[in-house]
Amino acid sequence: MSKDFDRRPDIAYSNLLPIVTERTVMRVPSRAEAPLMARYYKANRERFARYEPEQPAEYDDPNFWKEELLLAQMALAQDQALTLAIYLKANQTEIVGQCRFVDFQRGPFQACRVGYHIDERHEGKGLMTEALGAATRAVFERLKMKRIVAYVVIENERSARLLERLGYEREGTARSYCLVGEEWRDCLAYAAVNPEPI
Question: What is the pTM of this model?
Fold first, then answer.
């Protein structure tokens, strides 16, 4: 495959991260921060279970996250995915949310999929609007994606409104898209399109 067809951007990853907003800092966590990831998922396990596939029990184990964070760093270096932890700018000793851009497609597509969530204690403060908006712009401008898709369980109206505020447009319904608990759930399909040429 030629470089022109592959269309992989020349990315200086040192210029990609961190992504900084008025109140947040986003970056790929280091392996030393594995306990922070475990703590974040353990604290929000029940809440996430309402709208997401069941978390493996290993998510509570820092040793599991040491391996996962190494894989996340490798995935970014290989232009496959971008896993961002969200920290409060004023206190970067805990993780308060996450944005994950995955399934990078290059060639004629230049697209990926995004998932996100935030600690229940920080919900309703506009932090995810601020963080996901900045992360979306960075993926468009710095990773040269043309299109980002997101899927939201129909009942998760708060998440759907968030995407709409950020300019993601609803494109339809994905039937039986994911298994949540013991039920296959329909999801709303959203997409944001980079308005700039890439």
Answer: 0.92
Q: Is 84 contained in some domain? A: yes
d(Cα 192, Cα 107) in Å, to the nearest integer? 18
DSSP 93-122: TS--EEEEEEEEE-TTT-EEEEEEEE-GGG
pLDDT of res. 1: 41
Q: What is the dihedral of CA 97, 102, 104, 105, to 10 degrees?
A: -130
Q: Does a structural domain hold residue 154? A: no
Cα separation, 9 vs 190, in Å, equals 25
Q: Tens of pLDDT along 92-148?
A: 999 999 999 999 999 999 999 999 999 999 999 999 999 999 999 999 999 999 999
Q: What DSSP letter does each residue of 51-78 carry, written as one string? A: TSPPPPGGGG-HHHHHHHHHHHHHHHHT
The CATH code of the domain that includes 79 is 3.40.630.30
What's the total number of domains in the chain?
1
Cα–Cα distance measured from residue 169 to residue 35, given in angstroms and rounded to the nearest whole number: 36
Name the residue among 169, 89, 83 with its Cα closest to residue 127: 89
Q: Which domain holds residue 78?
A: 3-149
CA 156 to centroid of chain Cα atoms:
17
Q: Which segments of the chain have a pLDDT < 50?
A: 1-3
Q: Quick one: which H or E segment has residue 28? A: none
